[in-house]
Each structure stands twice: as C-alpha cells, then as structure tokens.
Design brief:
Layout lengths: L9 E4 L5 E4 L5 H5 L1 H12 L6 E2 H8 L5 H19 L4 E4 L3 E4 L3 E3 H10 L3 H7 L9
Parallel strand pairs: 1-6
Antiparallel strand pairs: 1-2, 3-5, 4-5
C-alpha cells in the first residue's frame, strides 16, 4: 500500500465553490470525483456534526446497488479519500461509523462560528456564495 500524499491539515471549501486544500500534495482529484467529494462534504458538513452510520451512507450514495456492491464502493471511496487527504482525515469508528478527523476544517464551520458570535461583518466576509454549487 502506498503512503498517503498528505498528513497535514485539510480544508474543505464549500461556500461558493467546491474545493479541497491540503498542506502537501494535490487534492484536485477529490473534487473531480463528485460522488467522493460529496461523501467528504457530507461527512464534514451534515447536521448534526459527527460520525455517520455506514448504512446511512450506503442509502444516500449508492441506493440502487446491492448491499455488497455498495459496501465495496464505500470502501473504495474511503480508501481514495484517505490516500489523497491523509490517514488522519477519515476516521472509522468500528465497522459501522465513519467520520472526518480533526485535521479537516471547513469554511462552513468558520462561517457558523462567526455567525454564532454575532460578528455580522466578519460573517459577510466569510460567506462566498451558495453551499456546494454544482454538486
């Protein structure tokens, strides 16, 4: 198994654009594969925040596939994301829970924190457009 390309911070940009930034390496392939980018975005941005049940992910992303095939696709997608973003970016809690690691941050989370602190000017500066345009 090859080593992951990135072991630093990962930034998910979802307001007004779909982009992933990593400290070292190239994350353009993540955005180019819309279903895998969608999976990363869902894990990072779905409310409430936190790990997701594997069955929930299968139903959302591979609803028409057999369970066996959907599990294979989920495994391949998680492997792909781990290879591109680093081992700390994707967390698996047992066999049933999947989430993102603490190295992943997002502009959406920053926007929500600024908005919650009632910093209107700063929140307007952080907001760059609709959530996940084109996805």
């Amino acid at each position: 198994m090859d080593e992951p390309r990135n072991e630093g911070p990962v930034e998910l940009l979802a307001l007004g654009r779909c982009e992933v930034r990593v400290a070292d390496g190239d994350a353009r392939q993540v955005v180019a594969q819309s279903k895998r980018f969608g999976l990363l975005a869902y894990l990072g941005l779905a409310d409430p925040r936190g790990p997701r049940q594997r069955d929930e992910l299968l139903a959302l992303f591979w609803p028409t596939m057999s369970e066996r095939r959907a599990l294979q696709e989920l495994s391949l997608s998680l492997y792909f994301l781990t290879k591109r973003l680093g081992t700390a970016a994707i967390r698996r809690d047992g066999k049933c829970l999947v989430g993102i690691g603490p190295v992943v941050s997002s502009d959406v989370q920053r926007f929500e924190r600024i908005l919650a602190d009632d910093w209107l000017e700063e929140s307007l500066a952080e907001y760059r457009g609709e959530l996940l345009p084109g996805l």
